[in-house]
Write a structure and sequence with these properties.
The chain contains eight helices and seven strands; from the N terminus they run βαβαβαβαβαβαααβ. It is an alpha/beta fold and 261 residues long. Belongs to the short-chain dehydrogenases/reductases (SDR) family.
Length: 261
């Protein structure tokens, strides 16, 4: 095997990354990181996601291209149709960041069917369908590639009021292992990131409901702080680049050490 110079090991020049839920703060930061490393971005954005102007501006500012597609990740026909349109547009894929996520908090006894259904539809089934569509395209083109799924610390560490979300994200971890087992021989690496408590719009509502969570999380985290989106730049660059060509089926926990305390 030819040795890749260290200066090129994390380069994504000439690559195309497909990102689901791309306007969500973590996904937007990781999209920008991949663009800074040379990748063009294909953003899949749900119809109810925030405006994409900031995302477009940040990607263009580093000299890379971004194209937007709208799709409801929790609706299988919509998601499959979106991927068909992407392939019709002659997009050659290299990286999938499978990020789209949603949560509905509440005690087990109060979780309603509609909440449970949307949590599993977006977080688990949507992630599976996106990975399947992406992998099928790579196989058809006989290309290597990277799939990076997004789970949660709650997939590993029991928490309260997130039972459906935790179950769905635990499924993402196991899905990652299963897909990597089948696709490693095709040179498709499938890995996962499990974030800890990170300051985003998703956790701002949690802090609004319970102001005591700020100090609770800080005190429970060995690093002594919450995460921020920029904390994920290194791990996404590693998992999307040639640096991780022999890494597959792995979940990287980014939580400031909370899970081991």
């Amino acid at each position: 095997m030819e040795r890749i110079p260290t200066t090129n090991l994390f380069s994504l020049n000439g690559k195309t990354a497909i990102v689901t839920g791309a306007t969500q703060p973590l996904a937007a930061e990781m999209s920008l990181t991949m663009a800074e490393a040379g990748a063009n971005i294909i953003a899949l954005i749900s119809p109810w996601d925030p405006d994409d102007a900031d995302l477009k501006s940040s990607i263009h500012a580093v000299g890379r291209e971004i194209r937007i597609w709208k799709a409801d990740v929790g609706d299988t026909p919509s998601l499959r149709a979106c991927f068909k349109e992407i392939w019709k547009a002659v997009v050659t894929p290299d990286i999938l960041l499978n990020f789209s996520t949603i949560n509905r908090r509440g005690p087990v006894e109060e979780m309603m069917d509609e909440d449970i259904d949307v949590i599993f539809a977006v977080n688990l089934k949507g992630a599976y369908i996106a990975a399947q569509e992406f992998g099928l395209r790579l196989i058809a083109l006989n290309r290597p590639g990277k799939i990076i799924n997004f789970a949660s610390m709650t997939a590993h560490l029991p928490m309260t009021n997130v039972s459906a979300y935790a179950a769905a994200k635990a499924g993402v971890v196991q899905m990652t292992r299963a897909l990597s087992n089948e696709w490693a021989p095709r040179d498709i690496q499938v890995n996962c990131i499990s974030p800890g408590y990170t300051k985003t719009s998703m956790t701002s509502s949690l802090l609004a409901e319970d102001p005591g969570m700020e100090s609770y999380i800080t005190s429970r985290t060995p690093a002594g702080r919450w995460g921020v989106p920029e904390d994920y730049r290194g791990v996404i660059l590693f998992l999307s680049s040639q640096a991780s060509d022999f890494v597959t089926g792995t979940t990287v926990v980014v939580d400031g050490g909370m899970m081991v305390r």
